[in-house]
Design goal:
The protein starts with a strand and ends in a 22-residue tail after the last helix. It is an alpha/beta fold. The strands form six sheets. The protein has a seven-stranded mixed β-sheet with strand order 5-4-3-2-1-6-19. β20 and β21 form a beta hairpin.
């Protein structure tokens, strides 16, 4: 089946859709008005993780005495750090360029796209010429951008977004982070590791995480040296000399605090990029949450789809965006594709790392699912101790039939370990299935193995669950 498909946006949804469409024989027009690779590659996932690695090394240097290593007079070169980050980004961008150019049926167009009707797109090219493209289907994959709160003083110089922070060479002496979602917690950890005095103002800590995990991360962040204020909201930002003062009020008590910093990072979330697409003219429904789509990611206009951060599904993750894109392309091309948005790994690149997949305890209770819980501490894992990272745990949930339904990890390499949990849940694996899979020793993966076997009382390196003593009745 030959199809002409236009894809607006060349991030992890757009370029993946283009390649999958080309593989299936479609003629693809991939349109991007900014950077190939989108936010994830240029201003998000990859730059952040490059800085995260710097923060890990700085943390290791700070703690080197624990390993019998003495390191004096080390320092961070912010310019060199940014050059390294840019080099990684450029290498990956060139890799995508090479991939796209290897498909004769993909045409990459640098320009701004606007929908004229359900089968026509007008593109304003970089040289200001106009080009019109006629297609069978349109896939909108324009992603998201940082959103700002309505806090008074938000437009003041020095109040920045994550995009701004990643473009700075200097490390702020004191960084105030407003918001403790994934972005806020990651940047608080990273810049604390890089040497900033970090103040984190949190209304809630990782609100979508299992409550036990979100409670455990707070003292661990404090132990790293971050000043964490919980159940609080920024009320006003005021210029005070060459500093910025944030006035914040506690949610449940009539009390305010004032904190001073050099920069204030607003980490309140991200909103869809829909400006200039011509959605209103076509009558495509959308809101602040994104473009409205059905279960197949199709908008209210037949043949026009929206995937990734720009739609209203509410899962702002690059890997989920790519999965949605592949699903839509395969559907357009007549394949019977499947996608399960209930099962996908969430990863937080903080120090320590946090990751989860499947149901939290709170969600299991809400759904009325009878469940069991087992936890294994990294403090009992040999590999974690050799790394000097014995804090944290693996928490596994199963149903009464011992099927794995949720995995939550806080600790070393949580974001790598979580995929064993994702594989288990997506394939309906049981405790028995995990138990008969030999896990290498000494590895961090043993913590998942032990936590899982703990659900049936078969874990070797965990004490058996205590039996409750029956109380004697008084006559």
């Amino acid at each position: 089946m030959e199809k002409n498909i236009a894809i607006i946006g060349a991030g992890p949804a757009g370029y993946v859709a283009a390649i999958r469409g080309a593989q299936l024989g479609a003629n693809i027009y991939l349109i991007e008005d900014r950077d190939l690779g989108g936010t994830c590659l240029n201003r998000g996932c990859i730059p952040t993780k490059a800085y995260f690695r710097n923060a890990e090394i700085m943390t290791d240097l700070k703690n080197s005495g624990e390993f019998g290593i003495k390191v004096d007079n080390y320092s961070l070169d912010g310019k060199r750090m940014q050059e390294r980050k840019n080099g990684i980004v450029n290498q990956l961008v060139k890799g995508i360029e090479k991939l796209l150019s290897s498909y004769e049926n993909i045409e990459y167009i640098a320009g701004r796209a606007k929908l004229k009707d359900k089968n026509t797109i007008s593109v304003k090219l970089k040289n200001n010429d106009e080009r019109e493209i006629s297609v069978d289907n349109i896939l909108i994959a324009t992603g998201s951008k940082p959103t700002m709160t309505e806090t008074k003083g938000i437009d003041m110089e020095g109040v920045i977004t994550s995009d701004d922070l990643l473009s700075m060479e200097e490390i702020p002496e004191t960084l105030i982070v407003v918001g403790a979602g994934v972005i806020g917690v990651e940047f608080a950890s990273i810049y604390n590791g890089l040497g900033s005095n970090v103040i984190l103002l949190a209304s809630r800590m990782l609100k979508n995480a299992d409550k036990e995990i979100s409670k455990r991360i707070t003292p661990l962040l404090k132990k790293q040296g971050i000043d964490v204020y919980m159940d609080i909201r920024a009320k006003e930002i005021i210029k005070e000399g060459d500093k910025l003062k944030v006035v914040a009020r506690y949610k449940n008590k009539d009390e305010e605090i004032e904190v001073l910093g050099d920069k204030v990072l607003i980490a309140s979330g991200r909103g869809p990029v829909v400006e200039g697409l011509g959605l209103d003219e076509l009558g495509i429904e959308y809101s602040k949450k994104g473009i409205s789509v059905d279960e197949n990611f199709e908008t209210n206009i037949e043949g026009i789809y929206a995937v990734g951060d720009v739609n209203n599904v509410g899962i702002q993750l690059a890997h989920v965006a790519s999965s949605q894109a592949i699903y839509v392309i395969e559907k357009i091309m007549g394949l019977k594709s499947k996608i399960n948005l209930d099962i996908y790994p969430n990863c937080v690149f903080s120090i320590p790392e946090v990751a989860d997949v499947g149901l939290t305890e709170e969600e299991a209770k809400e759904k009325g699912i009878s469940y069991k819980v087992s936890k294994f501490l990294f403090g009992a894992n040999g590999k974690a101790l050799t790394l000097g990272q014995g804090e944290g745990l693996v928490k596994v949930l199963s149903d009464e039939e011992n099927k794995i339904i949720g995995v939550h990890i806080i600790g070393p390499h949580a974001n790598d370990l979580i995929h064993e949990g994702a594989l288990a849940i997506s394939n309906d694996l049981s405790v028995e299935d995990i138990g008969r899979t030999i896990h290498a020793h000494p590895t961090l993966s043993e913590a998942f193995y032990e936590a899982t076997l703990g659900l049936t009382g078969e874990a070797i390196h965990m004490a058996p669950p205590r039996k409750r003593k029956k109380r004697k009745r008084k006559n």
